[in-house]
């Protein structure tokens, strides 16, 4: 299973490189089901894998000046705060066993995977649907209040279930900020980098980090994002989103059924 896991790790990077998101949607299931990492630890590990990989992927967008630093700052700062609070207090406050009904017991790990699966299904919808919006320049006036609220929401999601939030960030940047798609992808990668790595290192007091696994998966994912960034210049990532969305939907339904049916 580990060999399959390392192959899947390449897909994490390719997804981030091509469409600026989706990597975290793959990371947690890969760690849980292919590397047998406990879900609570997997959501923590995911922050490092996705954050580091996204940082590498954002470099090419920096060179092409396809990142809106102002948008990233307004969106990213409240996200960092929300990631820390969610990881440090919200996750820690969830009891190991929430309740038992008959033969069914909902544990902390089970809850995290259920939340992750529900988010996967919701994310798949935003990827599958087709919505045409009017783009505008990256430096136009921003709705500061709306961006802060969205940053807080994405940061909470990132801290709770280890998802970088690209599938939430990009629709917000395209639909509300009206960034061009490629600029939205580059800005998303920068925001994911800051959110995820800050969430990981601010909570590094969590015990028993398997650094050998973490660095191996991250290294392979970085190879994937280099491939994905190269392909992004040749392929329209927006056209790949619906296909990836159906894949994410299938994975989300699988995880839901696995958790609910045991």
List the helices and strands and how they pair.
Elements: H1 2-19, H2 23-34, H3 39-63, H4 69-93, E1 97-101, E2 104-107, H5 108-128, H6 144-161, H7 166-175, H8 181-201, H9 211-232, H10 237-261
Please provide a brief summary of the model.
The chain has helices spanning 2-19, 23-34, 39-63, 69-93, 108-128, 144-161, 166-175, 181-201, 211-232, 237-261, and strands at 97-101, 104-107. With 262 residues, it is mainly α.
Describe it for me?
This protein has 262 residues and is mostly helical. It has one domain. It is 75% helix and 3% strand. It contains 10 helices and 2 strands; from the N terminus they run ααααββαααααα. A two-stranded antiparallel sheet has the order 1-2. β1 and β2 form a beta hairpin. α1 (2-19) runs antiparallel to α2 (23-34) and α3 (39-63) runs parallel beside α9.
């Amino acid at each position: 299973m580990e060999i399959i896991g390392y192959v899947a790790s390449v897909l994490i990077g390719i997804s981030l490189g091509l469409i600026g998101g989706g990597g975290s949607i793959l990371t947690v299931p890969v760690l849980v089901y292919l590397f047998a990492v406990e879900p609570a630890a997997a959501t923590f590990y995911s922050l490092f894998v996705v954050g580091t990989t996204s940082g590498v992927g954002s470099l090419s967008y920096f060179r092409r000046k396809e990142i809106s630093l102002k948008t990233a700052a307004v969106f990213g700062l409240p996200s960092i705060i929300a990631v820390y609070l969610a990881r440090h207090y919200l996750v820690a406050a969830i009891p190991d066993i929430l309740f038992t009904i008959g033969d069914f017991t909902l544990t902390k790990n089970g809850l995290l995977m259920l939340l992750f699966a529900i988010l996967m299904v919701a994310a798949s919808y935003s990827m599958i649907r087709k919505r045409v919006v009017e783009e505008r320049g990256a430096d136009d006036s921003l709705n500061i209040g709306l961006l802060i609220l969205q940053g807080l929401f994405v940061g909470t999601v990132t801290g709770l279930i280890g998802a970088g939030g690209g599938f939430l960030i990009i629709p917000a940047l395209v639909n509300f900020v009206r960034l061009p798609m490629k600029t939205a992808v580059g800005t998303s990668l920068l925001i994911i980098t800051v959110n995820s790595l800050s969430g990981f290192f601010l909570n590094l007091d969590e015990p028993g980090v398997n650094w050998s696994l973490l660095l191996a998966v991250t290294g392979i994912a970085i190879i994937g994002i280099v491939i994905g960034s190269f392909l992004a210049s040749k392929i329209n990532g927006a056209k790949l989103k619906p296909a990836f969305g159906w894949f994410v939907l299938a994975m989300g339904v699988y995880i839901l059924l696995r958790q609910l049916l045991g």
